[in-house]
Structures are given as C-alpha cells and as structure tokens.
Design a protein that fits this description.
Elements: E1 4-7, E2 10-11, H1 17-28, E3 33-41, E4 46-53, H2 55-72, E5 88-97, H3 101-119, E6 123-127, H4 138-141, H5 149-153, H6 169-174, E7 177-181, E8 186-192, H7 197-207, E9 212-213, E10 234-235, E11 242-249, E12 254-261, H8 269-282, E13 287-293, H9 298-311, H10 320-330, H11 341-344, H12 346-350, H13 362-369, H14 378-401, H15 410-444, H16 452-493, H17 499-525, H18 533-562
Parallel strand pairs: 5-7, 6-7
Antiparallel strand pairs: 1-4, 1-5, 2-4, 2-5, 3-4, 8-12, 8-13, 9-10, 11-12
Helix pairs in contact: 1-2, 2-3, 7-8, 9-10, 14-15, 14-16, 14-17, 15-16, 16-17, 16-18, 17-18
Length: 564
C-alpha cells in the first residue's frame, strides 16, 4: 500500500492574500503533493492549509512552506484572535494510509530538526512527536505564545526541543514552530429529528469521552457534586477519543450532535454513529443522518461498509465502490445533501487523472491491443486473463454466499470472495505494470551512448530494465496461481449452478500463467548476465506445473455438476 500522510500547517497570516498565495505556491512546487484546502481567517489572522502525498514530498513541502512563511511574515507585527507562537505556528503530520502514527512522529522530529538547522527556527515537538509527556499537549508547548519566547528560550525547562537560548533577529521575526504528529481527526455532525439544542447537548454529554458534570440524584439540574479536594466530579461518556456538543443549525432547521473523533482507532466513525443512535433513542430521539465535515481517509468508509455488511451477513468480497456505497447508505451520509466520495475521500482526490489500461472499456483495451503499438502485449493480456480468472472465482463465492438455504455459510464464502478481490486488485495493477516495464526498456534505447561512460550507463540501465520486465510477468504468474485454489474450492463447494463459471475461472487463470511464462522466458533471454534468470525460470516452470495440476482437479469437479 502506498504511504500517504496529511499535513495541516497553520500560518500566522489570514488577511494578506498575496502572502498566503506565495506560501501555498511554495508548497505546490513540490512534485507529488496535492493541496486540498486553503482556509484563511481574518479575525484569527491565520490560514490553515491542508495538503497530502507520500512522506518525502510532504515533508519537503512542509519545509518549503515554513521557509516562505519565515520570509514573508513578521511576528513582531502580528495580531490575531488565535493563540500563536510563530509564522508557522503548528505543523502536524497525520497518517492517512500505509503508515503508522509512530512513523509520522519520527518524520515530524526530523522535520523540526531540519527547520532549526537550516532556517534557525526554534521548534517544539508535540502530541505523538513529543519528547516528554507534558509536551504532548500543544497548549504546554505554546504557553505564553510569541511574546513569551525570550524568557522561554533562557529557561531550561521551557526551551525548545530544537534550538538554543539565543533570541536572534531570525527568531524575533519568525518566532517558534510547533511540529507534531497526530491521528487523523474526523469532524462529523449527527442530524437529529428535533429542534432542541438542550436535547442534542444531552446526547452529546452521554457519548463524548469527557462526559458530563455529576449532579445530585443524577438529574440535569441538581447540585454539582465535588470530591474531597473540592474538584468537580465528572461522569465519563461512552466514546473514547471523542469531543461533542449539541447545537441548532438554522440552515437545516434541525439540531445536531457535532463531534470531533480524535482517535479513529479507538472509535471508528461507524461505532460513533451506532452509539449516538443508541443514546438518541434512549432519549426518544432519532438520528436521521450524518454529515462529514471536511475530508476522510478511505479506510473510514471501507471499515464502516464492512461493518454493516457483516451485520447483514453479506459477503465482504465485493468491490471497493460497493463497500463505500453501503457505508454511505448505512449512515445516511447523503441525508442533507448528496455525498460524493470522490470529493470527500483523500485517496480519491489524490487519484491520477490519467487512465491506464485497466480503466479502459473492454472494447478500448482490445482495440488498443490490436493497434500497431507493441504495448500492451502478451504480458498485459496475461494479467488481464488472470484478473478475469480471479473475478469469476470471486463471483461464484459471492453467489454462493447469497444462495437460498445456505445462510449459515455466508462467512465461508465471504472469506473466499475477499481473497479473490485482493488478487483481482493485484492483477489489475499488473496489467499496466507490464506495459510500464516494456516502456522502461524502450526508454533505455534513447539514452546517449557516445562516450564509454555513457555506453556503460546505458547497458546497465537496459540490463536492469530487462530483468524487471522478466520479474513483472512472474508476479502475474504467482497471483494467477493463487486464483486456482479459490476456483477449486468453488467448483467443489460453491453454488452448483455456477460450476461452469469456476471452470472458466480455471481456464483463464492457467492461460494467464502460461502466457506470462512466455514473457518471463523472452525477457530472461535478453539478459547479458544469465545468473539472475535461472531462479526466475525455475520458479516459472514450478508455477506452470502446479497450475496444470489444479486445472485438472477443477475441471474434474466441474464435470460432476454438468454431466448430462
């Protein structure tokens, strides 16, 4: 899985559009970074920028944004309603996909170190990147704000994690930055069938982690209860990592429970939805829908869709689009206005607009193959046949999961369908990867070859590209082979009416294996050094042998269902 992180820097300028635009342009200059949102605030004199990408380009963009803010913002002249300690006030890194919070914390510390060493900006590390427990709290790091920096720098207990005790001209102008790592925050509103803010607030108190103040007799109006130290006693709510309040929205004419889920691992969105529904029902209310504010990682909706499919005892081995659709409908995300995942899911917003072979229509793919271009060729077609084999095995599993009278076996077939979907995804990627491998070889022939050094570099690049072009079809063989045990299981145990589909799945997967093997062999033949070719060819032969044996077993099982 590609690693994706989000960065949400807050810059201490919300009024001068020219300054804001130049900071954002510095971020956009980094290839591989997508700016999702720019939100300036005049009263706070602060702008929040949201951008995403893989870790290296995001960290580079964060550094360049901080450098440009240092150049353009003078903290000695800054005034605004929001707490702040520097031109780049906060700089959090947030895991979205394929990366852990701990890895983001390491990246944040490295970024803070670089900002100090190259820009002279003192940095405090907060939340998951904090070096001490107390500095996990951003408020502790930012205490006293910009104006307190001179005394904080000279205080060993309050000095920055990266910086020294010198209040230089650079520090006076740019201030200090708070660089951290935190979990993704999901902002969500739950719509209620009431106009009462008080009742919405009561539901919010029931579920939020902080809960409500304890009162005598458990009433809402009784005397507040305090402990032996005179401190207020609190009754905690039911959802960890959640903050919530109740409010009334004029635009919609309803009350809502407005929630920030600060730990989506402790409380996924669908669990929050279920608990708010329960708490609302206990007070005679009903949740009519859900409104996601801002963006969410794809995982949030995938996990929700899988949760509701499992509750319905339906197969989880369906397409990603269908799983997301189940999530949208189950939580009524389209209650107040249409919900378009392509506009709300970070990974979809980052998707490359360029269409690959796998995104073509069947006719388009076939006609592209029939053109004068040498790619796509046999390798891509082999991956496509493997994908069809995996898809057919998955289809039989899904049909079997819904077969009348087999309700108690839904999980058995769902597990097979999930494996099939994973193979299908892998093989779809290999359709384009095989063509990319061929193009990599072609690119080598356009390299300069005048000097001996250039000739050597060209020969080395061609050898590496040719080896890769042999490795890709071997991956197609491995993935297609894995589809055959699924087809066998469906031929033996699946819906008898779909036995022929399991047989076609086997034929397609074996054709993929044998076709890809030809590509392994022809590319291995093009290697100057045959040493790395030997294990590839040996493994390819082993896969063909195993595939042929499985094909025989599958077709034998199929025949028992279709013999006249």
């Amino acid at each position: 899985m590609k690693q994706i992180i989000e960065c949400v820097p807050n810059y201490s300028e919300g009024r001068d559009k020219a300054v804001i635009d130049r900071i954002v342009e510095a971020i956009k200059e980094v290839e591989g970074v997508t700016v999702l949102d720019v939100d300036p605030g005049e009263a706070t004199n602060r702008t929040v920028v949201t951008f995403v990408g893989e870790p290296e380009p995001v960290c580079e963009a964060a550094f360049r944004g901080a450098r440009k803010a240092q150049e353009l913002i003078d903290m000695r002249k800054h005034h605004g309603a929001h707490p702040r300690s520097g031109a780049t006030d906060v700089l959090p890194l947030i895991p979205v996909a394929g990366i852990t919070l701990q890895e983001c914390a390491h990246l944040a510390r490295s970024l803070a170190k670089r900002m100090w060493e190259e820009l002279g900006i003192p940095c405090y590390c907060y939340e998951a990147a904090a070096f001490t427990p107390e500095r996990k709290n951003l408020a502790v790091c930012r205490a006293g704000e910009y104006e307190a920096l001179p005394e904080k720098l000279s205080d060993p207990a309050r000095k920055p994690d990266f910086g020294n005790d010198q209040y230089t001209e650079t520090v006076a102008k740019a201030g200090a930055s708070n660089v951290g790592a935190r979990d993704f925050l999901v902002a969500v509103n739950f719509n209620l069938n009431t106009t009462s803010t008080r009742r919405a607030m009561a539901v919010a108190f029931d579920v939020r982690e902080k809960g409500r103040k304890a009162r005598e007799g458990g009433s809402l109006t009784g005397k507040l209860l305090k402990d032996e130290h005179g401190e207020q006693i609190w009754i905690p709510g039911t959802l960890k990592g959640c903050k919530a309040i109740g409010w009334y929205i004029d635009e919609y004419g309803i009350a809502q429970v407005s929630m920030n889920i600060t730990d989506i691992n402790a409380t996924p969105l669908h669990i929050a939805y279920e608990e708010v529904c329960r708490a609302a029902s206990a007070r005679g209310l009903k949740v009519t829908g859900t409104e996601i504010v801002g963006l969410v990682p794809k995982k949030v909706l995938i996990d929700a869709g899988r949760f509701y499919l499992e509750k319905q005892q339906r197969s989880l081995g369906i397409s990603e689009q269908e799983i997301v659709k189940i999530a949208v409908k189950s939580m009524s995300l389209d209650d107040l206005k249409p919900f378009n995942p392509k506009e709300k899911v970070i990974e979809y917003l980052m998707a490359d607009d360029k269409k690959g072979l796998a995104q073509m229509t069947v006719e388009g793919f076939v006609r592209e193959t029939a053109s004068e271009s040498p790619a796509p060729g046999g390798g891509s077609i082999s991956a496509c046949m493997g994908a069809f084999g995996a898809a057919l095995a998955t289809m039989v599993a899904n049909l079997s999961a819904h077969k009348r009278g087999w309700d108690d076996r839904w999980k058995e077939f769902s597990d097979v369908a999930e494996k099939g979907q994973a193979l299908l995804d892998e093989l779809l990627l290999l359709i384009d990867e095989d063509t990319a491998a061929f193009n990599r070889i072609m690119d080598c022939f356009s390299m300069p070859k005048g000097t001996e050094e250039e000739k050597a570099a060209r020969a080395k690049a061609l050898e590496e590209a040719t080896l890769y072009a042999a490795e890709v079809p071997l991956r197609t063989m491995e993935a297609s082979l894995k589809a055959l045990p699924l087809a066998l299981e469906m031929a033996q145990k699946g819906n008898p009416a779909s036995a022929s589909d399991a047989g076609v799945a086997a034929l397609a997967a074996v054709a993929a294996v044998k076709g890809a093997r030809l590509n392994v062999r022809i590319n291995c033949a093009g290697l100057t050094d045959k040493t790395p070719a030997k294990p590839l060819l040996k493994r390819a032969d082993e896969i063909v042998s195993a595939a042929e044996q499985l094909q025989t077993e599958i077709l034998t099982a199929v025949e028992t269902h279709i013999t006249m």
